[in-house]
Design brief:
The protein has 2 domains: 220 residues, P-loop containing nucleotide triphosphate hydrolases (Rossmann fold, 3-Layer(aba) Sandwich), CATH 3.40.50.300; 68 residues, Alpha-Beta Plaits (2-Layer Sandwich), CATH 3.30.70.100. The protein has 11 helices and 15 strands. The strands form 3 sheets. It has a 6-stranded mixed β-sheet with strand order 7-8-9-4-10-11, with helices on both faces. Strands 1, 2, 3, 5 and 6 form a 5-stranded antiparallel β-sheet that branches. A hairpin with a 2-residue loop joins strand 5 and strand 6. Helix 3 packs across helix 4 and helix 5 packs parallel to helix 6. It is a peripheral membrane protein. Belongs to the ABC transporter superfamily. Drug exporter-1 (DrugE1) (TC 3.A.1.105) family. Pfam families: ABC_tran, DrrA1-3_C.
């Protein structure tokens, strides 16, 4: 339905997006993950026709939209990172304004406003000024605005950042229903891995402007199928111990956690005895260890060297 082909964008000689190829099939929910500065928002801005690429193309049903962006704007809804509402207007007034910008016909605009307010659970607050809303409620109005013209594709750029758990759960449930019940095609970026795992059929991972991995959850997890992840609790940690463990044969990555360290090593390699001896030499006790099943967070850390929230 929608694809980017060798998509690139340069800013002052630096490539923010570097030959990115992604696609969305109709009715899919696709996650776009990456640390800050990975190029996610720039990619979304190009797909949304807000930016022109330095090179490459974006195609909708096989037709380029770079020279004719009106085609995608008719069927695309975008929920940006920053709240884009007029705080001195009510929720209803904001939605009426955006509905007119979307050129929703007057005879159906009132019905669409009622529908989207129902979807985001704010029908009872439609006459209240947006400035009186919590951050989570404002983000729900943002989503409602993006749904007024009944888009076939919905892009959500970190829609749950900095909001209360109740609003977050409501947004996640709204996105799930839009995808499963209304068959809206979703492109979803987030700093919360569990959201992407819950909502998305496929995932793209970006870093330094490039797509470095893509696939279903099981396909991405297979990247670590040749590795063991060991969570180790210690009485304390030290830089000397971490550096010693990094020097072990078959150890590929060591990361400090709240309770100790996480070690990724070659599958089947027995490093626990060496770990205990190294810890004892530093006067540190191994209080607990556990073999972990790899998660998407582990894959992300393995590929980028960072956690998703870094």
């Amino acid at each position: 339905m929608l694809e980017t082909i060798n998509l690139s964008k340069n800013f002052k000689g630096k490539k923010a997006v570097d030959e990115v190829d992604i696609y969305l099939d109709e009715g899919e929910s696709v996650g776009l993950l990456g640390p800050n500065g990975a190029g996610k928002s720039t990619t979304i801005s190009i797909i949304s026709s807000l930016l022109k690429p330095s090179s490459g193309d974006v195609k909708l049903d096989g037709k380029s939209i770079i020279k004719n962006p009106a085609e995608i704007r008719k069927i695309l809804g975008v929920v940006p990172q920053e709240i884009a509402l007029y705080e001195e207007l009510t929720a209803y007034e904001n939605l009426k304004f955006f509905g007119e910008i979307y050129k929703v016909k007057k005879n159906i605009l009132e019905e669409r406003i009622r529908d989207v307010l129902e979807i985001v659970g704010l029908k009872e607050r439609q006459k209240d000024l947006v400035k009186t809303f919590s951050g989570g409620m404002k983000r729900r109005v943002n989503i409602a605005a993006a749904l007024l013209h009944h888009p076939k594709i919905l892009i959500l750029d970190e829609p749950t950042v900095g909001i209360d758990p109740q609003s977050r759960n409501h947004i996640l449930e709204t996105v799930r229903k839009l995808n499963e019940e209304q068959e809206t095609t979703i492109l979803y970026t987030s700093h919360y891995m569990e959201e992407v795992e819950q909502l998305c059929n496929r995932v793209y991972i970006m870093d330094h402007g490039k797509v470095i991995a893509s696939g279903s959850k099981s396909e991405l997890l297979s990247i670590l199928s040749s590795e063991d992840t060991i969570q180790v609790q210690l009485s304390e940690t030290s830089d000397q111990l971490i550096e010693k463990i990094k020097s072990f044969d078959h150890v590929r990555q060591v990361d400090e956690t709240d309770e100790g360290i996480r070690i990724i090593s070659k599958k089947g390699s027995n490093i626990l005895s060496g770990l205990v001896l190294a810890a004892e030499k530093e006067g540190i006790q191994v209080t607990h260890y556990q073999m972990e099943t790899p998660s998407l967070e582990d894959v992300f850390l393995h590929l980028t060297g960072k956690t998703l929230r870094d």
